[in-house]
Amino acid sequence: MRERGGGELWPAWFEARALERQGRAPEAHEAYASLTGAFPAFGPGWDGLERSLVAQHGPGWSAERMQLRASRSEAKGGQAASEVDLAIDDACARMLLGERREAIADLEATLEAAKGANRSAQLLLAELHLRGAGVGRATGALRAALPTSRRLTDDPVVGLLVNNLLQEALRELEKGTTSNLARTERDLARLIESYPSDPLPVLAWSRLRAEAEDRNPALVVDVITKAFEALRDRTAGQPLASLRSDAAQEWGSFLLTIAPDVAETFLLEDLAVTPGDLDLWRLLAQAIAAQDRPEDATDLYEALVTMSSDPLAHEAYAWFLLERGASADKVQEHLKRASILAADEPIDALRSKFVAALAQLRLSEDPKISGLINSFSQLWERRGDLTGVSTQRLGRAYITALIQRREGKDRRTIQAVLAELTRGSELDPYVADLARAMAGIERHLPDVSAEEEDRRRKRSSD
Hints:
By secondary structure, the chain is mainly alpha-helical. 73% of the residues lie in helices and 0% in strands.
C-alpha cells in the first residue's frame, strides 16, 4: 500500500490504537474515521472504526453500523476477506437499499455453508428479522450467537435475547394471549441456568411473573423475592452493578414497585460497597417513602439535594413533595433547580412539566386554569412519550382541570379522555368507578349552545 504524506498512515494508526486501548472510544472512533478517510483501502482502519462504534453503542446493527460496512465493502473492493464478512457487507448494502428479504436469504445461505457460528452475522440476521417483525426467527438467530461460558455476567447477546423474549411476551399479555407464556418462562429459566451470575435473565423472568400474576400480589412478592435472593446467593452478594451495567438500578426500580422493604435491604447492601452511586441513593429514598416513613425519606432527600448536583435527585424530591402536599412554590423550586443542573444531561422534560402542572392544580390556591389546561393538553397529545406517569393519572388530572374551568366547550374533550381511561376498565374497577363519577360531573357543565346564547344576548344589550 502506498502511503500518503510522507508516512502518515502508521502514526495515525498507532494513535487510533492507543486511544482505543485507553478506552476512549469516541476519540478513537474519530481517529479511525480520519484514518479510513485518508486511506480507504487500509482494512485494519475499518476494523478499528467498527470496534469503536460497537464500544460506544453495543453490538446491535444500527443504520450507522450498516452504513459503515457498506462503505467498507465499496472502499476495499475485492481485497481478502472471509465469505461471512463479505456476506455481512453485502447484507448491509442490500438493507440500506430496502432489500431486506434478499439480505436475509443471502446471509442465511452463507452461514449455512460456513458450518460455523459467527456472532456478528447472527446478530445482523436477528436485526434483519426484527425489522420485518420476524420475532421467532430473530430469537433463533440470537440463540445461535450465545456465548458458551457460564461465567459471563454481562454478555450483550444475552441481553438482546432476554429483552427480545420479554418484550414479545409482554406484547402478547397486553393482547390477552397467554398461549406462549409458559414457553417464554422456560426459555428464560434456561438462560438463568446457563448464565447463573447474570442479573438480567432473572430480572426478565421476574418481570414476566409480575405481569402474569397481577391478580395475586402476595404470590408475586414471594416468588420474586425468592428468585432475587437465589441470585444474591449465587453471586455471593456482589454489587449488581459489578455484574452488569445498570443492573442495580433496574433491579432496585423493579423491587420498589412490588416490595419496597426488599428493595431497601438490597439497596443498603449494595450502597455499603458502592456508596457513590447516586441512582441507588435516590431509589433508597423512594423505597423508604413507599413504606410510609416520610420523615426518614425527607432527611435522605434533603441530604441528596444538598450534597450532590444530581438533577434527578431534585426531580424525585419534587415528586415526593407533591405527594406530601407541600406548597407549589416548593415543588417548583426543585424542578427549576433540576432543570438548571441538567444542562449537560437533560432530565425528562415531559415528566417535569407534568409534575409542575399537577402541583399548580393541586396545591395552588389560585391556579391559572387555562394555562394548566394547555399544559395538560400538550402532555395528553404526547402521553406515549411520558415516562413514569400512567395514562390514568394524566387523564384524571386533565379532566379535573377541565371541570374546574366549567366551560361547555370542554365537554367533548372530557368525553374523549374518559373514553381512553375506560378502555379495558373491566380489569381496573377503580378507574371505571372514577370515570363514571367524572362523567356525572361532566353532565353538569354548561351547555355550549346556552353559553353562545348568553354571549349573543350580552352583545345585543351592549
